[in-house]
């Protein structure tokens, strides 16, 4: 019996922690829903919550930060983000109805939010891939949050292209947040939420995120949102090209949407 329990202990100790935003990562990822925008507009703290590439959890602790705070005047950036979201989700939102046990009221929860990446404003998406972390020190950072090196596991939006993340990591600057390399020793709390200046970032919106996003046989579109405006880009023959017409062809009048969906203000 003693050997059995020892085996269980050793086996479970090999499982790694869930990896969130690490110092050195090129991006911070969250899910863009109506609730995300509502919080950005109403809460002065402007805090975003990290979302991993999938819902699978190692359930053995966490490594990294699950929040990022925007600093500076974000009004125009958020307005452009909201405009883009409403166009892309004019007729494509999906919901489930749940009970809020605090109020006993029914609420609608949006289940198909868009992928929202926070990148440096000068990130060169024509040369490097959206969805790769380009963090050459991610294992060391993982360990700095109090975990064993042997448990380090990296999940990715583009697992078939991880070799590029390793190959080009030294060429891609990390996200310009206040997250400091190797400085936390497992202590992550509300007092050391990393921050980033609004003037330094772009929002990049991706709807579907298949593994073949960058393959020749598929033309995919993503959207770069800054305080200055919105660009719709499509990948064609390995080159990203601005496609203004694609964005203009989206639904321009979104007033009907708000009338058609009951409980829009109750998004969670």
Can you put this structure into words, describing what you see?
The protein has 268 residues and is an alpha+beta fold. It has one domain. It contains 7 helices and 13 strands. Strands 2-8-10-11-12-13 form a 6-stranded antiparallel β-sheet. The chain has a 3-stranded mixed β-sheet with strand order 3-5-9. A hairpin with a 2-residue loop joins strand 11 (221-226) and strand 12. The radius of gyration is 20 Å and the shape is globular.
Could you write a compact summary of the structure shown?
The protein has 268 residues and is an alpha+beta fold. The protein has 7 helices and 13 strands. The chain has one domain.
Which characteristics define this entry?
22% helix; 24% strand; 13 strands; disordered C terminus; 268 residues; globular; disordered N terminus
Secondary structure elements and their pairing?
Layout: H1 2-13, E1 18-19, E2 27-32, H2 34-42, E3 47-49, E4 62-63, E5 67-71, H3 75-88, E6 95-100, E7 105-110, E8 114-120, H4 138-144, H5 162-167, E9 195-197, E10 201-206, E11 221-226, E12 229-236, E13 239-242, H6 244-248, H7 255-260
Parallel strand pairs: 1-4, 5-9
Antiparallel strand pairs: 2-8, 3-5, 6-7, 8-10, 10-11, 11-12, 12-13
């Amino acid at each position: 019996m003693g050997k059995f329990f020892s085996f269980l202990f050793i086996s479970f100790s090999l499982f790694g922690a869930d990896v969130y935003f690490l110092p050195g990562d090129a991006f911070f990822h969250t899910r863009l829903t109506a609730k995300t925008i509502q919080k950005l507009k109403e809460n002065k703290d402007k805090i975003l919550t990290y979302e991993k590439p999938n819902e699978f959890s190692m359930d053995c602790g966490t490594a990294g930060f699950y929040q990022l705070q925007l600093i500076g005047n974000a009004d125009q950036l958020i307005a452009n983000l909201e405009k883009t979201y409403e166009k892309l989700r004019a007729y494509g939102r999906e919901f489930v109805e749940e009970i809020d046990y605090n109020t006993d009221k029914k609420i609608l929860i949006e289940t198909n939010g868009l992928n929202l990446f926070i990148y440096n404003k000068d990130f060169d998406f024509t040369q490097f891939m959206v969805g790769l972390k380009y963090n050459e020190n991610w294992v060391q950072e993982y360990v700095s949050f109090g975990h064993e090196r042997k448990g380090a596991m990296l999940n990715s939006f583009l697992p078939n292209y991880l070799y590029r993340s390793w190959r080009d990591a030294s060429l891609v600057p990390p996200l310009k947040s206040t997250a400091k390399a190797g400085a936390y020793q497992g202590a992550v709390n509300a007092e050391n939420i990393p921050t980033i200046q609004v003037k330094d970032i772009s929002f990049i919106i991706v709807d579907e995120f298949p593994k073949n996003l960058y393959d020749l046989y598929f033309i995919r579109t993503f959207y770069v949102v800054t305080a200055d405006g919105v660009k719709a880009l499509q990948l064609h023959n390995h080159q990203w090209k601005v496609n203004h017409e694609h964005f203009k062809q989206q639904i321009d009048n979104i007033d009907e949407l708000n009338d058609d969906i009951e409980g829009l203000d109750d998004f969670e």
